[in-house]
Every structure is written in C-alpha cells, then in structure tokens.
Specification:
Layout (H helix, E strand, L loop, with lengths): L1 H19 L1 E3 L4 H15 L9 H14 L6 E3 H52 L5 H7 L1
Antiparallel strand pairs: 1-2
Helix pairs in contact: 2-3, 2-4, 3-4
C-alpha cells in the first residue's frame, strides 16, 4: 500500500516537474501546432461559447508574442494558467453581454408598457371630455 502511495507521489512529482521545467518555444508551424495541442490538452478547457481550439491557439500565439524578447524557453504551466484565465475571461465577457442584452430588453419593454399606459390614459380622458394633469403639463 505504501509502495502504491509513494509511486503515485513520484508520478505527481514528475508531472509537476514536467509542467514547471522551461521548454523550448516552437520555431516552426508543425512545432507550434504540436506544442499548442499539448498545452490545450493539458489545460483541459471545455469547448464552450466563444472558446474553440482555434481561439485557444490564437491566444497561445498572442502569449508567445508578448513574452520577453530574450525568452526562448518557457514552462508549460505559464501557458496553461494563462490560457485557462483567458478562457474564463472570454466566457465571463459573453455572459456579461448576454445579461446586458436581457436587461436592456426588459427595460425597453417596461418603458414601452409605461408609454402605452400614458397614451391610454390620455386617450380615455380625451374621450370623456376631462383633462388630466399630464395633459395640462404637456400643453404648457
């Protein structure tokens, strides 16, 4: 039993070492695609609204362009963490936009209902010959 636990710990340590050891950044298209596929698989990001393999590769390419000019080796953990954060941001931005659209539609509907109610009151009061306070204010 202890041997199994130690074996698992050893495997976990190897994984941690693998993720935190700087590796050469890709220098060709085939290298980039292999590297990006590896990072994407390790990041484990579910494909969701606005998060596709292409958008993840785009984000990885952007990350490479924005690291220091003298860095040609970087650990996978850096890219995995950044990629996960970008995916989180992308989903959050999409949700924020959906909420904004829903609230705007609700407010527009409420404003339209209020305007229709005002028009209805004006129409009713003009039919029976009375003038309500709102009509007096509009005339002035």
């Amino acid at each position: 039993m202890l041997k199994k636990i130690l074996s698992r710990l050893d495997k976990n340590q190897k994984l941690v070492d693998d993720l935190t050891t700087p590796k050469a950044l890709p220098m060709g298209v085939a290298d980039f695609n292999f590297w990006a596929d590896r990072i994407i698989a390790q990041a484990g990001i579910p494909i969701a609204v606005g998060v596709s393999t292409e958008s993840q590769k785009f984000a990885l390419a952007d990350m490479i362009l924005n690291i220091g000019a003298t860095e040609d080796y970087k650990e996978d953990a850096y890219f995995i963490k950044n990629l996960r954060k970008k995916a989180i941001n992308q989903v959050a931005a999409h949700q924020r936009e959906e909420i904004r659209t829903q609230v705007k539609a609700r407010l527009d509907a409420e404003a339209k209902a209020a305007a229709e109610e005002v028009l209805k009151k004006q129409y009713v009061s003009s039919e029976d010959g009375t003038t309500d306070e709102l009509q007096k204010q509009t005339v002035q």
